[in-house]
């Protein structure tokens, strides 16, 4: 068996120019794991909160055997719901040499608190403003059917925890490269949109899925208008997606998912910020849940498309 494995590795090596590889297959890293290592979830309390947040960290497969290497970081909102999907996607794409190894960090409510804990995201992801729904008929429909009592809008406090407290705290423990991606879906997408204009230097890339971008009476669009009045540049790579079937759900229409997403794409395209790279996709036949893994995979493949076609591509070719 050992001879068989050695023969396979030798065959693979025929097509590889080692000095040019930015992301060699894990088989070429002695001692590397076959997949990422998901560490036990921690509970960390931010300065502005009287409760803990769950933080789940997944380290790259080669992390333990490459002590001098730093890794890009993917920050995932809604830890108990989304982190495992992102980790699985990164494992597959790294295995296929479509992206570099990365550290994945999920932040959210402790899973043990159930949906009650997840519900806090409504306050934590809401920008300053009034109410919950998108403006106009959307707000009227929600008020008549599912009236929300007043609640705190804590996006500023959550972003301060995520960027100013948690990032340096974990950066002192783990080997971060100077490359940070934020992933947010649904209300998390709204928070990502708000962060784009209020903390524009915090993330190099953003994956925004099915965002409730028009919620809180267009708060993100108002933040964009304020940003545009003072700035011409926004050097961030952005991937935005939503499911075509989301228009068939009453509550998602109240949140203006499809209209808010397309308005946001349109706004950014027409604004044409210097340094911004924007890619968008509406996925036919997908709903609010089934579209999430497709957006994550397509976004990461898009971000690293040039590397994947060059130095990441290490599949063996026919010997000349």
UniProtKB/TrEMBL annotation:
Keywords: Hydrolase, Signal. Gene3D superfamilies: alpha/beta hydrolase (3.40.50.1820). InterPro entries: AB_hydrolase_fold, Esterase-like, Siderophore_Hydrolase_D. Residues 1-22 form the signal peptide. It comes from the Bacteria. The keyword Hydrolase applies. It holds the Pfam family Esterase. Transmembrane segments: none annotated. Belongs to the esterase D family. This is Alpha/beta hydrolase. It comes from Qipengyuania polymorpha.
């Amino acid at each position: 068996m050992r001879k068989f494995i050695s023969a396979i590795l030798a065959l693979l090596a025929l097509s590889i120019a080692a000095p040019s590889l930015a992301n060699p297959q894990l088989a070429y890293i002695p001692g590397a794991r076959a997949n990422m290592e998901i560490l036990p979830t921690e509970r960390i309390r931010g300065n502005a909160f009287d409760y803990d947040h769950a933080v789940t960290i997944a380290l790259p497969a080669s992390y333990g055997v490459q002590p001098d290497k730093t890794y890009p970081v993917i920050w995932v909102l809604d830890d108990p719901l989304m982190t495992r999907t992102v980790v699985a996607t990164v494992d597959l794409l790294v295995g296929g040499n479509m992206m570099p190894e990365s550290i994945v960090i999920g932040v959210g409510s402790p899973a043990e608190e159930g949906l009650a804990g997840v519900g806090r995201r409504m306050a934590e992801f809401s920008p300053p403003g009034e109410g919950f729904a998108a403006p106009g008929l959307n707000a009227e429909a929600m008020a008549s059917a599912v009236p929300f009592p007043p609640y705190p809008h804590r996006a500023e406090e959550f972003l301060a925890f995520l960027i100013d407290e948690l990032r340096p705290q974990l950066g002192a423990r783990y080997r971060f490269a100077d490359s940070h991606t934020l992933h947010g879906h649904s209300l998390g997408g709204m928070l990502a949109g708000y962060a784009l204009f209020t903390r524009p230097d915090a993330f190099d890339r953003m994956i925004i899925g099915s965002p409730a971008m028009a919620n809180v009476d267009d708060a993100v669009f108002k933040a964009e208008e304020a940003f545009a009045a003072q700035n011409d540049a926004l050097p961030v790579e952005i991937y935005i997606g939503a499911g075509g079937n989301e228009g068939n759900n009453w509550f998602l229409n109240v949140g203006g998912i499809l209209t808010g997403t397309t308005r946001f794409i349109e706004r950014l395209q027409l604004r044409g910020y210097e340094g911004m790279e924007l890619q968008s996709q509406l996925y036919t036949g997908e709903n609010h849940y089934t579209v999430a893994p497709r957006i994550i995979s397509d976004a990461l493949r898009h971000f690293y498309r040039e590397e994947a076609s060059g130095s990441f591509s290490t599949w063996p070719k026919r010997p000349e």
